[in-house]
C-alpha cells in the first residue's frame, strides 16, 4: 500500500484528491494538510511514502515545504501538484527536492500514475514539465538560485516581508524578538541587494516567488 500525504489549502480540491486516490487499491491517504507548516509537521510525524504538495499555500510556501521534507525525509518522494505552469516553478521545485511535477488540470488517472511511478523510485513529470527540464540543459545560466545565500530563517522572513508583514508581525509569527526579526530582515535586504521592502517584492515578482 502506498502511503500518501496531501497538502493543499483548498478543502474541496483536497477532498477530491482523497476521493480519487481512495478508489485505487494501491493508495492510502494517511494525512491531509491545509497549510505549509502543517504539511511539514504531518510529514515528519507520519513519514509518508509520497507527499503531494501544492506550491501556493499559507504560512509556508510549497517550495519551503518541499525543501524541508526532502532534507529530513530523503526517502519521501514529493509530487508537486499545482496550477503554476511557469518554467521557473518547475526548475525551482525540482531543485528543492521534488521528484514529480503535475498540473491540476491533469486527468485523475495521471495523478494515480504519477503517485505509483514515484513510489517505484522513478520520477514523473508531465510532458510540459519534462520539456522545461530538458530546456534547462541548453540554458543553465538562466536559472540562478533566487534565494542566493539566504538561510532557512531568512527565507521565512523574506516571504513574510513580501506578504506585507511588519517587523512586529514577523517577530510574532516566528516567535522571535522584534530585534532578531529586524536583524534577519536586514540580512535579507543585504544578500538580495535590495534597499527596502518594495524592492524585495519586486525581486520576488521577477523570480516568480510570489507564492
Automatic annotation (TrEMBL):
InterPro entries: CheY-like_superfamily, NreC/VraR/RcsB-like_REC, Sig_transdc_resp-reg_C-effctor, Sig_transdc_resp-reg_receiver, Tscrpt_reg_LuxR_C, WalR-like. Coiled coil: none annotated. Keywords: DNA-binding, Phosphoprotein. SUPFAM superfamilies: C-terminal effector domain of the bipartite response regulators, CheY-like. Signal peptide: none annotated. Residues 3-119 form the Response regulatory domain. The modification 4-aspartylphosphate is found at residue 54. It holds the Pfam family Response_reg. Residues 143-208 form the HTH luxR-type domain. This is Response regulator transcription factor. It comes from Kangiella marina.
Amino acid at each position: 500500500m502506498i502511503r500518501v500525504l496531501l497538502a493543499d489549502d483548498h478543502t474541496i480540491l483536497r477532498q477530491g484528491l482523497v476521493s480519487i486516490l481512495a478508489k485505487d487499491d494501491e493508495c492510502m491517504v494517511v494525512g491531509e494538510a491545509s497549510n505549509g507548516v502543517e504539511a511539514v509537521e504531518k510529514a515528519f510525524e507520519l513519514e509518508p511514502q509520497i507527499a503531494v504538495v501544492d506550491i501556493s499555500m499559507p504560512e509556508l510556501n510549497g517550495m519551503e515545504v518541499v525543501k524541508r521534507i526532502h532534507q529530513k525525509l530523503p526517502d519521501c518522494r514529493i509530487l508537486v501538484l499545482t496550477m503554476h505552469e511557469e518554467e521557473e516553478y518547475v526548475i525551482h521545485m525540482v531543485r528543492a527536492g521534488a521528484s514529480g511535477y503535475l498540473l491540476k488540470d491533469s486527468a485523475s488517472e495521471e495523478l494515480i500514475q504519477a503517485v505509483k511511478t514515484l513510489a517505484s523510485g522513478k520520477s514523473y513529470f508531465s510532458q510540459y514539465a519534462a520539456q522545461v527540464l530538458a530546456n534547462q540543459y541548453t540554458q543553465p545560466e538562466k536559472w540562478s538560485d533566487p534565494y542566493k545565500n539566504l538561510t532557512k530563517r531568512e527565507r521565512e522572513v523574506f516571504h513574510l516581508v513580501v506578504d506585507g508583514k511588519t517587523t512586529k508581525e514577523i517577530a510574532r509569527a516566528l516567535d522571535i524578538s522584534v530585534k532578531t526579526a529586524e536583524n534577519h530582515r536586514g540580512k535579507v535586504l543585504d544578500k538580495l541587494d535590495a534597499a527596502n521592502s518594495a524592492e524585495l517584492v519586486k525581486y520576488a515578482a521577477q523570480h516568480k516567488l510570489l507564492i
